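Course assignment 3, question 2. Fill in each field.
Student: A.L.
Task: Predict the tertiary structure for the chain below.
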Amino acid sequence: MSLCCSSASEDLGCRRGDFSRKHYGSVELLISSDADGAIQRAGRFRVENGSLDEQAPDYTPGTWRRTDVHLENPEYHTRWFFKYFLGKVHQNYVGTDAEKNPFYLSVVLSDQNNQRVPQYRAILWRKSGTLKISLPYSPTKTLSVKSILSAMNMDRFERGPREILNPDIQKDLLVLEEQEGSVNFKFGVLFAKDGQLTDDEMFSNETGSESFDKFLNLLGDAITLQGWAGYRGGLDTKNDTTGIKSIYTVYQGHELMFHVSTMLPYSKENKQQVERKRHIGNDIVTIVFQEGDDTSSSFKPSMIRSHFTRILHMDRECQRNYLCFCPRLKIFSEESVPLFGPPLPSPSVFTDHQEFRDFLLVKLINGEKATLETPTFAQKRQRTLDMLIRSLYQDLMPDLHKNMLNRRSFSDVLPESPKSARKKEEARQAEFVRIGQALKLKTIVRGDAPTSLVTTGLCRKEPWESQSFCSTFPYDIVCSDSWGQSLLVATETAGVMLVDGKTLPPVQVFDRTMVVKQMHVLEPQDLLITRADKGKDARLYVYRLSAMKKGLEERQTVRSKCDSRENKLEKTKGCHLYSINTHHGSELRIVAAIRNKLLLITRKHPRFEGFSAVAAGVDSPVEEFQYIREICLCDPPVVMALVDGPTGENDNMICVAYKHQFDLINESTGDAYRLHHVEANRVNFVAAIDVYEDGEAGLLLCYNFICYYKKVCPFNGSTPMIHSNTSDFHFSWNQMPNAIGKILLGLISITFCLDIVDFLHILYFI
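Answer field:
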């Protein structure tokens, strides 16, 4: 069992009778015959056609009223162990129930959930499936394992649960969780010409049609298989044995690969096209694209000879012309497949391509998930889960009387260790977390993370392997930031260049009079922020990216320092360092350091839509910024980072590094709080990076060869609660980095080390 989300329109328990027939079709006996009328195959299928039979024959498709289109049993209800347990301090227990069946219990105390309230999360692993619950945390009342199991309706045991202290148990529990189902999906796409009655005829189509190509473009992107590093869906990405190209897309965190019949290898000698059937015939869900203008399709799902395929979709065009691609959809599913949403609209004709794509992809994913709940698949999954649980239990049996299993069965879930054993327990927890984080890293790199956090091949290599963006850049680099698919690079002697990483030469954006020392490209806000020059002449400059892009497209004169006079933020003269909030909320904040003075700057909110450079008639956004306050420090900061508070009201902080310490400064009051003291004779501060998990702020403090992570939330009014936490950790570099930055890719925070000598080789660490 798992916490699941059914269709928002009705839940499965309501999909019965008239409602079921109206929205999810009816079960029919469908018979396929050959050209001579002889019956070939028959089967009972649920047919969804959007009440097509009730339409008037002269119906003209109009605007579809969108139904609730969303994924059922979404992943925030699944894969808890990977997301909330793995790589964090938690406890695992093993026991046997009253029927002598082994079970496992995993418990973690979440620092805070989305409502910023501490809570317990628990997973019960049994042969019948997994059960997940959340329980409230009370600082005055400890929670026991017995009370957790009681909340899961387990009160009787043949052998009481004992804690498993071996950190390798995390790997085994991760395998158990993988039985919940697929992370990514592969679907078949079969092209059928008008009048084709057998799957041999359909699989023998060498090419598609213009409308079929439009449909494929709607599904996803055409990718070259050779060298493809994303989800491959069983296709060959080395030797082109399964075709040269395929269709691929990412939808709501899921990677989808489509096995397109006309893209798979074709054989003139093999009339059955076994190679094509090997892939599409083993896909749980298959789309059949039916050509032709006949209003009553002759297609029957029993035409497809497959013991594996359960769901079939039939697409065809309605009122086809050269200007319109207007698909009509029918859905066939075997009688044993549970109902799944979204319900097909009535009529089942789509005129909005994006709405059709959303509906189809969600229906495909939900269809595969529903099929996995049929007796055939569910029984196999239950047998596999039972076998894995019993096998793991047998492996743990020798440890029942050793220290590997602790008799802390009904003790507090997170007990306080005695002082004499505290160091030993802390060392065990540190090793436990280290192994869990390593497992998590391998799972992500392998592309098997519960949500497709990595959707390109960029991070699928080992994290320590550098990625070459441009190997022949001729200038020494000062700083850089990404702009679209390119890099905006500031050099020592050649100004600022735009590099696309391809064979095209770099394009000069600013000439050598503009000596940029820091920069940030903020594409969502149409801004470029730079710090140029040094000493008393240093200033912050702000530009509109759209104006710069227009100038590059029109091949205007390269900008100089003189051309940037209107882009100065005047009060920033003498600025030697600045920082911006990277966890953007509703307001952009900039802190400029001028010796030991901090200047807080914010961007004004436009009062009405349409307030822009074009409306104002100027290219410079300087007037959109306002100066808020000044804060004085005891020493000039070497490193800074802005930390967003949970409310944004009097709880935003500035992390500064100077002398031998990192301090937190309250933006509203200027009060300083000691965050971390560096125990070293010489300190080379590298970076302070703000990172966020479930809305909670933390800081990665980087100096010398060390990166130290420290959580700085929750906030209590204007005072940050800074204390040692089990989530704190540190790691070391083999060499001292020159700079460390952050990229947010999906849900992963990735830091990369930039070497000044070889700036365009980027080293990724998860």
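Instructor remarks: The chain is about 15% helix and 35% strand. The two ends are 32 Å apart (CA to CA).
Grade: pending
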